[in-house]
Amino acid sequence: MEAKTNLLVRDLRAGYGNLDILNGVDLDVPGGQFVALMGPNGAGKSTLLKTLYGMTSIKGGNIDWRGKNIAGQKSRAILGEGISFVPQGRCNFPVMSVDENLQMAAYTLRDAKVKADRDYVYDLFPILKKRRATLAGNMSGGEQQLLEVAMAVLQRPKVLLVDEPSVGLSPAAIGIVFDELLRLHADGMTILLVEQNTKKAMEVAQRAVILRLGQVIWDGLPKDITHDELGELFLTGKMRGEADAVH
Ligand SMILES: Nc1ncnc2c1ncn2[C@@H]1O[C@H](COP(=O)(O)OP(=O)(O)O)[C@@H](O)[C@H]1O
Ligand SMILES: [Mg+2]
After folding, report:
1. Separation of 33 CA from ligand 2 center, angstroms?
2. Which of 32, 56, 102, 107 lies 20 to 30 angstroms, CA to CA, from 214?
3. Structural domains of the chain, ranges and CATH numbers in brackets
4. What digits encode the pLDDT tens for the residues 186-237?
């Protein structure tokens, strides 16, 4: 069996143009772990995922993955290294069927030196198999979110970065999407999930990491932080017991 691989983020600084958003992020993600990344709006959660996937300007620091620093590499190369990204919002092709969407995803990945096939995805997501001829845009929000995840796992990544998959979904649909993430995790996938639905995130993740102003300010087990403490942090920008507000 292949050794578990860790993703090691060191003093990562990144942003958009001259704008610095990540101000020295340190984070170790052991292979196979399911990590929930939380924090107030604008904390830099999406920016961190985008940075891990090569979509921002890196100002400094390292992203160590399989013995090399992938910080600054292009998304396609990062994908080829086994890290895949499900961005926030819809990014399927609404007037194509599920089958065609997966075919498109496989097509766009053709240079990534990865094995991509629809049957693999249909085994993982029987719901999509049943819907293979349905136009993506005619499916429910939950089914479309599953399709987004499926398009990202088509190339059999080791690490899945998922940004706010629950936005706009009904509680039932959220349940289905999270169940699928848990199944991928049970199969060995490392998952870094950004989620505003903290209750749900705390249920599924093995570890919680809280970001504020582009830095990790808390890192621990979900059971060691309460819902109230998280709410307070999101409201005031302060952790309970912290002396000064940070602006
Ligand atoms: N493409 C962009 N260009 C410039 N600034 C951006 C861009 N995307 C996000 N930002 C800014 O970066 C900061 C962090 O945003 P983001 O990472 O989306 O936060 P979060 O996901 O934690 O809510 C915000 O101040 C936001 O306005
Ligand atoms: Mg975000």
Report:
1. 21
2. 32
3. 7-87+157-236 (3.40.50.300)
4. 999 999 999 988 989 999 999 999 999 999 999 999 999 988 888 888 888 7
